[in-house]
Automatic annotation (TrEMBL):
GO terms for cellular component: plasma membrane. This is Multisubunit Na+/H+ antiporter MnhE subunit-like protein. Belongs to the CPA3 antiporters (TC 2.A.63) subunit E family. The lineage of its organism: Bacteria, Bacillati, Actinomycetota, Actinomycetes, Micrococcales. It comes from Isoptericola variabilis (strain 225). NCBIfam families: PRK08965.1-5. It is a multi-pass membrane protein. It is found in: Cell membrane. Its main location: membrane.
Amino acid sequence: MSPQRLRRRVLRLRIHWPTLLVLAGVWIVLWGDLSWANVVGGLAVSALAVVLFPLPAVAADTTLRPWPFLRLLGHFAVDVFAASFQVAWLAFRPGPAPRAGIVGVRLRNPDDVVLTVTAAITSLVPGSVVVEAQRRSGMLFLHVLDLEGSGGPDGVRERTLALEERVLRAFAGRRLLERVELGAGREG
C-alpha cells in the first residue's frame, strides 16, 4: 500500500468515529471487562480495522427522525412479541403443519440503507426470513412460516410495505420521501 493511500485511510478515522466507538464497544463487551486497557485496546483494534478494511462509501440521503424512529422500534417490539407467540403456538399445536411459502415484495425504493434495514427487521421477526434481496430492483423474497395465518401473499406484502414506510419515515431524507410520495411532514 502506498504511503499516500495509507495516509488517506488514516485521515478517514475522523469521519468514521461512530464506527470506531461501536467496534470498541463490541470489543469491551466481548472481553467482559470495562478497564482502561480494554478501552484503549478496543479503540486501537477498531482504528486498525477501519484503516485496513475500509467500507465502501454509502451514498444515501439519510436523516434520523426521533419520533418516527421510536414508532419503528415500538412496532418492531410488538411484532416480535406477537410473532413469538404465534410461532410457539404453531410448534406445539396439534394438527398438520402450516403451509409455508415464498413471497416476493417489491419495495418502493431500492436504496441500500432502506433495503438493508427493512430486510434485517423482517428477518428478526419470528416466522419470516428474507431468503433473497435484489438490490437493483428492490425486491425482497421472504419465506413465511404460516402463509395463511399471515393473510396470504397480499397480507405479507402489505405488512412489509408498511414496515418499509416506517423505515423510510425514520431514516430517509426529505428528497427521498418526496420521491416515493410519502412527504416528510405527513404521518401515515
